[in-house]
Amino acid sequence: MTRKANDTPSVDARAEENDLVITRTLHAPRAAVWRAWSEPELLKQWWCPRPWSTEVRAFELRAGGAFHTFMQGPDGGSSDNPGSFLEVVPQTRLVFTSMLLADWRPNKPWMPFTAVITMEDEGADCRYTARVMHPDEATRDKHEQMGFFDGWNAAITQLEDCASTLR
């Protein structure tokens, strides 16, 4: 999808208690957004803001299944993110966490959070909400100060671009 300079997405981005929330309308059908989320080869195309790249190390799309990404920056920086899926409702809802590994094994992540992704039809488009829940306000603030809104919004734009090619 080619985006014009003045074609900025309408974004509802806010901190809410211990959560960081982004809601956007993506110009792609919900089924395509789901496909971009549920196929590892597609996930690699949009998961982290470019010029970073993503390696999908584990992807078991089921409750208790492993969800492990490794992100690599052009300057040699990296981010290893093991976790698991908690809930999978096709084309509707995905819940994943950094606080558990596959099959409910506890984890001590560098950034503890649980993300709830919801997808709803909005005409021919998809209303997409990412709610990232943290154990406390300090962790939420740390995640926000790391550039959460810019980074997650950039990835969501890449998700939209990827999904729009799947029509």
CATH uppermost class: Alpha Beta
Question: Rg from C-alpha positions?
Answer: 15 Å
Overall number of strands? 9
Instruction: Give me the CATH architecture, please.
Output: 2-Layer Sandwich
Structurally, the number of domains stands at: 1
Helix content: 25-40%
Tell me the series of helices and strands, N- to C-terminal: EEHHEEEEEEEHH
Q: Give the mean pLDDT.
A: 94
Q: In which order are the strands of the major sheet placed?
A: 1-2-9-8-7-6
CATH topology: Alpha-D-Glucose-1,6-Bisphosphate, Chain A, domain 4
- Which overall shape is indicated by the principal axes computed on the Cα atoms? globular
CATH superfamily: START domain
Structural class: alpha+beta
Strand content: 35-45%
Low-confidence stretches: 1-6
- Measured between the Cα atoms of the first and last residue, the distance is 11 Å
User: What composes the largest sheet?
Assistant: 6 strands, antiparallel
Q: How many individual helices?
A: 4
Report on the structure:
This protein is globular. The chain has a single domain, classed as 2-Layer Sandwich (Alpha-D-Glucose-1,6-Bisphosphate, Chain A, domain 4), CATH 3.30.530. The N terminus is likely disordered. It starts with 10 loop residues before the first strand and ends with a helix. It has a six-stranded antiparallel β-sheet with strand order 1-2-9-8-7-6, covered by helices on one side. A three-stranded antiparallel β-sheet has the order 3-4-5. Helix content is 25%, strand content 36%. It is built from four helices and nine strands; from the N terminus they run ββααβββββββαα. The chain is α+β, with helices and mostly antiparallel strands and 167 residues long. Helix 1 packs across helix 2 and helix 2 packs across helix 4.
